[in-house]
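Subject: mismatched residue count in predicted assembly?

I count 800 residues in my input, but I want to confirm that the predicted structure covers every chain. Input:
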Amino acid sequence: MTYYELNQEQVCSYLIQAGVFIPEADLEVNEVGDGNLNFVYRARDAKTGKSVIVKQAPPYIRVIGESWPLTTDRMRIEADALEIQNRFAPGLVPGLIHRDSEMALEVIEDLSHLAVMRYGTIRMKRYPRFADHISTFMANMAFYTSDLYLSSREKKLLVKQFINPELCKLVEDFTFTDPYYDCSNNIINPELRPYLEKVFWRKTDLRLEASKLRYKYLTEAESLLHGDLHTGSILANEHETRVFDSEFAFVGPSAFDVGVLVGNILINYVSWIGKSYSEVEIRRYRDFLLDMINEICLLYEQKFRAHWDLDARDIVASIPGFQDFYFAKSFPDVVGYAAIVMIRRMHGIAHNVDVDEIEDLERRRDVQIAVLELAEEIMLTRKEFTEIHELTELVKRRLY
Amino acid sequence: MTYYELNQEQVCSYLIQAGVFIPEADLEVNEVGDGNLNFVYRARDAKTGKSVIVKQAPPYIRVIGESWPLTTDRMRIEADALEIQNRFAPGLVPGLIHRDSEMALEVIEDLSHLAVMRYGTIRMKRYPRFADHISTFMANMAFYTSDLYLSSREKKLLVKQFINPELCKLVEDFTFTDPYYDCSNNIINPELRPYLEKVFWRKTDLRLEASKLRYKYLTEAESLLHGDLHTGSILANEHETRVFDSEFAFVGPSAFDVGVLVGNILINYVSWIGKSYSEVEIRRYRDFLLDMINEICLLYEQKFRAHWDLDARDIVASIPGFQDFYFAKSFPDVVGYAAIVMIRRMHGIAHNVDVDEIEDLERRRDVQIAVLELAEEIMLTRKEFTEIHELTELVKRRLY
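Triage response: the counts match. Full output below for your records.
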């Protein structure tokens, strides 16, 4: 079967033909995608109540159209990643019901009872189980897909399987490159432009540090990453957490996912200076956010070390000092990637609603500058950090 | 065509069938391989004098036999590497005349007018052009196969093309792992064993540093490496230099090839304490060796930087400070890999004739211990080195 773009009606017949539903099913199909890249449908059998999500990747970026082609291989990558995530982090990603690489399509578990976490955090929603869940996801994936656990051969075949040039290129450009100069891809708050031109784009030291982190992103093949682990890639409620949208998956520096997540939470932390909540409300939520960051990072390391002690098969596992070396090497990169993502989400091609929902452009600019200045400080001092409390205390000292 | 092992007669008919020689050729074929892995034949047309080298990789390690299987894909890797080396370092590798991945075979330029450099260096032969040639080879390959030059996509496809699990595993084990404990793969001078047991294998700090360098070898995909660049992989005379045997090629840390070469030269440097030459002769040759190491490393960096200034296409090229960062990061790894290879060649699975030609086992042991102690010192202090003179001066202070 070769690729064709499904319309809503064809989704029904496809699902029945693929055996996902029986021919007698009374299917309702709705497009539910707010995704930038793909078509996403929800299909529900009115008779039984059974429902699934269908994702299909067109050979272009959906929100832009056919003028920006993008490989459909991204759906093969996403489904491959989902299989591995289901193996090493079961219950923390959607179940994979059916996949079809020719059609650039996957059918996954319907998780409509959960909401995208970003929309909760901009309304001060709390997620008491999140730090525990996401640290399990990240530690399991980072450890069990690394050379510490896999055989040398398995690891190299994993690198090969997840060679993902087109999607990685988007990150290389949009995240590490474009925000550091006046690139036409950037989407810039006009009120922010003078700061960028007179201050930010002249910071060559910052750009150098971004380049070092970009080079690591390009060359350090440590673990299979989600590759875009922000709160918009997470469905959650008080009890449950699911990570989705793994099309950016590749084998890269293990610090990347952790850093991206921490950076996104810090954007939310800063964003409250632009919004109408009481000081007490803001402080309480900020305390929650910093506690969450601390917990995520501490649990991540704790769980990673526990896997290492229990399951490491590589010879280095037994070398005294290597585990400490690994984390000492990795932690400044976590902080660095957090800063990288804070910067790119202010005036790069994709923003966070945390900040962009502030309609007054001057107030939005003030938030953006506060994020950029905080990111700069933590980027330039990242090698001095040895544990997460030092970072969160710095954040609190600067802004509370 | 599927694989079959050529005998001497079949080499003739194969070469004619493949169009390497005309049917009227009067071919003489001799086996010339002293290679450990492959069958190597020289075929010469008595009528015209034209000759070529035929290399075929059997599905096992030739010197061991069928009991140690090894992928014939290594010949595909070698020929792929040779094509790229011929492109970026023409005249410094054999020409590739014909390749046949099904038959795990390549036909390359006959370089019988040159000799393996190792056999020259153990007889105090000098190679006045070598530093210039090999620094060109290493700088060209390291730069033009890196993210600094290639597009992100080209680089990732290069990584994929050179996924080389079986050969890399040999290096991971034989080079980085086995020499640090009493592994049955090791071949140990019985006179050296007490030192290994009572001293060397108890050095946990050394083993930790070896593990860090091994982890870099496993995870840092910077440039396409030769992967086994010792003086036994080099054909040379006073005027000419050719690098061969690239079956260990993969995309790894750019410091690796440089370090392996420097380490092999340092083994030769130390080896003279076991041999009957006059003090003056030894000092002169040692001066030549250290000058050569200095020149190789300085020219390597000079040429790499010149390529960078001229041809870097990646955005980081323009960032002030990134080039210095690259070399500051890389140089301690060069020193580290030099130490790694010095150690593994003393009591690992494969030794250097520089030391093993010393027949008196006690004198050989003294040389081996001197190499191991020198390697230990430079490994543990490698982060203090910022340029090659510091290393060669240390070597001279210890032993001259």
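The mean pLDDT of chain A is 96. Marking this ticket as 'not a bug'.
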